[in-house]
Fold this sequence. Notes:
By secondary structure, the chain is an alpha/beta fold. It has one domain. It is built from 7 helices and 5 strands; from the N terminus they run ααβββαβααβαα. β3, α3 and β4 form a beta-alpha-beta unit.
Amino acid sequence: MIFSVNINAFESEKERNLYYKFFAGYFFNELIDGYSDRVSLMNEHLSMKSNNPIHLVNPAVSFDNHSYQLGIGSDKGEFADILLHDPKSNTMVAIEAKYLTNWSVNKDIESNLERINAIREKLNYEIHFYILVSKTKWASAEKMKNHKFSNYSKYIKYHSNEAGVLFWEDLVQLCASEQVRSYMVKMLDLVNKPKK
């Protein structure tokens, strides 16, 4: 069972376990009823978050994506944890997903954007980039906005026009499946609980 809320079930703690399950196991799984509705909902949500219209028609979803796989450079770093790739509309949506770990402008935004810009130069694709975090982790970063090395302040000052912000909690609300919502809420509650 992919979306088990059984507290005794073993669950990998890796971030990719969660985003594989959510994006491939449900949201962009064409074998599950309501696929086209979910694609439409995601188009609306992504468009709202970037103030740019996004037109995914029938996107393929891919994970742990590197620019060298597209024949661009030899850099082994990732440009997207999750890639929604739609050749029909020449659109890519690159997402850097954070679940357990904190986000960093240098590692999670600037290095990804450098690779994404190299892809843009070589391919005729419209590429949208987002970072996906929990609202709790975003609020924690925002609280540190006056700190000298604040990721939040650096993002707002330099990258807010280049990288949209998605929240796990908002994506969960787009789910029509109660089972998927329950599972995702459970997983987010685990990571968002204050440490003792």
